[in-house]
Amino acid sequence: AQTVTQSQPEMSVQEAETVTLSCTYDTSESDYYLFWYKQPPSRQMILVIRQEAYKQQNATENRFSVNFQKAAKSFSLKISDSQLGDAAMYFCAYGSSNTGKLIFGQGTTLQVKP
Amino acid sequence: DAMVIQNPRYQVTQFGKPVTLSCSQTLNHNVMYWYQQKSSQAPKLLFHYYDKDFNNEADTPDNFQSRRPNTSFCFLDIRSPGLGDAAMYLCATSRDYTHYEQYFGPGTRLTVT
């Protein structure tokens, strides 16, 4: 069975600084995809970034980028130039191409300090 | 805008009184999911539909059922809510199984009194 681990329950960053959220996963599947979702206090889950396992190039979306290390089964999220609106719970998620299910990590609560 | 809509946003029900939560989508996606999320925890998948095919998670209590009368709508029925069923219920959709992300609705906060 697939598992996703986020080892940082809480993180904080100063506004305009950079922060990295960690995520590791375990799987025996060869075809899968990985996501970072953001859930602000209003609770709607929003997709931040996605990465296909077959792609070597790390995904980037504006201030958000990932460091995907397939062999190490690591998928960290880097947020550059942090903004107050980035404060939220961030979930790393593994997506199975076979079942269409998402397996979530435990989440990391990010605090952004002004 | 195309989106996932959940109604109501807040629902209060009494212990043991059946309740139905609603989800609709304008994305024309094949897959619809229901998750239960308790405070500060990851969402827990209850079940999902691929088109009309229902897929139940092994650990979803029998108390929870679902209906999908058409592509756009999906309902979550809780037959006899207990205090432990108080949670946020999230609906999500996906175009397909392969390589497609899930889009989430805003959720329904269920309170059981």
Could you give a short description of this structure?
The complex is a heterodimer of chains A (114) and B (113). Chain A is mostly beta strands and 114 residues long.
Q: What's the quaternary structure here?
A: heterodimer
| Principal-axes shape call of chain B | globular
Name the biggest interface: A-B, 26 and 25 residues
- Total beta-strand segments of chain A: 12
Query: Approximately what portion of the residues of chain B adopt beta-strand conformation?
Result: over 45%
DSSP helical segment count of chain A: 0
What is the overall pLDDT average of chain A? 94
Sequence stretches where pLDDT stays below 50 over 5 or more residues of chain A? none
Number of strands of chain B: 11
- Spatial extent as radius of gyration of chain A: 14 Å
Helix-residue proportion of chain A: under 10%
- What is the CA–CA distance across the termini of chain B? 36 Å
Q: Helix/strand-derived class of chain A? A: mainly beta
Give an overview in words.
The complex is a heterodimer of chains A (114) and B (113). With 114 residues, chain A is mostly beta strands. Chain A is built from no helices and 12 strands. In chain A, a hairpin with a 6-residue loop joins strand 5 (32-39) and strand 6. The N and C termini of chain A lie far apart (41 Å). Chain B has 113 residues and is mainly beta. In chain B, 0% of the residues lie in helices and 51% in strands. Chain B has no helices and 11 strands. Chain B has strands at 4-7, 10-13, 19-25, 31-37, 44-50, 53-56, 64-67, 73-78, 87-94, 103-104, 108-112. In chain B, strand 4 (31-37) and strand 5 form a beta hairpin. Classes of the chains: A mainly beta (114), B mainly beta (113). Chains A and B meet through strand 5, strand 6 and strand 10 of A and strand 5, strand 9 and strand 10 of B.
